Amino acid sequence: MKNGLLVDRGPNRLKNIGDYIQSLAQEQYYDKIDCYVQRESLNTFQSDEPVKVIMNSWFMHEPTHWPPSDNLVPLFVSFHINPGAADTMLSPEGIEYLRKHEPIGTRDESTREILEKHGIKAYFTGCLTLTLGRKYRSAEHGDKVYFVDPYFERFRGKSKIAKLWNLLIDCCAMPKYRKPIAKLLPKFENCICPSRIERVSKRFAHKLDTYVFYRTYSTLFSDETLFNAEYVTHMIDKEVYDTEEKRMDLARELVKAYAQARLVVTSRIHCGLPCLGLETPVIFVNSNSLENDVNYNGRFQGLMDLFHQMTCVNRRLDTNSTIVASFLNDGNIVPSKLENLTTWKVLADALIKTCTHFTND
Description:
Blueprint: E1 2-7, E2 14-16, H1 18-27, E3 35-38, E4 51-54, E5 57-59, E6 72-75, E7 79-81, H2 86-89, H3 92-100, E8 104-106, H4 109-117, E9 122-124, H5 133-136, E10 145-148, H6 160-173, H7 178-188, H8 202-217, H9 223-228, E11 230-232, E12 235-237, H10 244-259, E13 263-266, H11 269-278, E14 282-287, H12 294-300, E15 308-313, E16 316-319, H13 322-325, E17 328-329, E18 332-333, H14 344-360
Parallel strand pairs: 1-3, 1-4, 4-6, 5-7, 8-9, 10-11, 10-13, 13-14, 14-15
Antiparallel strand pairs: 2-12, 15-16, 17-18
């Protein structure tokens, strides 16, 4: 029997490298990889012999490509169904397929609930990236602090008029912050996700985002921390990273960097969860403006309690963890003092046992 590695190119030019960090988590459990298995074309996968594959991922952009080919021998752990794809994926044929392979281990409680409503046995496993420390944990942590796609509110207000008015206020305030903007911009502009304002002026968009980031994060982080930090985005250009090997290499590079970090601050779930597994202190930044987004919150249900969290409210960071508050000094987070919660370890141990049994069988 062959070993397959589940990967996802996705339909868009920009790609979240977090999907390949999930693939990296699978890779730990195989002695060798015989082939790549594309998530969005599982139904057409062909092989001259059965292929084992761990189905830990977000499913899916093209739900009509479900269920997978009979050539695949799946292990369902850390499985997430996009609520927008659920009706199509859970057709009579899709339900029958999942029942053949139950119980289904889900990445989040929301997916578990969806499956159980359709009569499919399911249980919560958490994310397979919690086990990345099995291979990539580092015994030493340097002094680097990483901000990885940290959330901030570019535009305030619910109406277009309110957004434009607040943008004008921002433009008037920006000159007062020209020194911190000048220090942060060269590092920060490379980690900013594209926004619509870039169509007007890319340089102005980057200055605005740098200003908003600084105004937001300086409420709990010192200038020394912010100016010396590394800034990273998980969004990559697939025309630059144009092969599966290049994407996997980048995923390894990032995970190794996070493993040696002093602290990681992120709004990317596939940065935050790997950091837990790597035993690197991590803070997850959430937003109350997204609390009614079903697709957003569904992905996190059951996972948020594993993190120290901050919530971005009106361009200020509020800690909703008394433990985080204990790592403050003069109102600022002290990176060297922060330690993760340990509740994730039970999930990681169970995943390691399940995946090891599957790949060694």
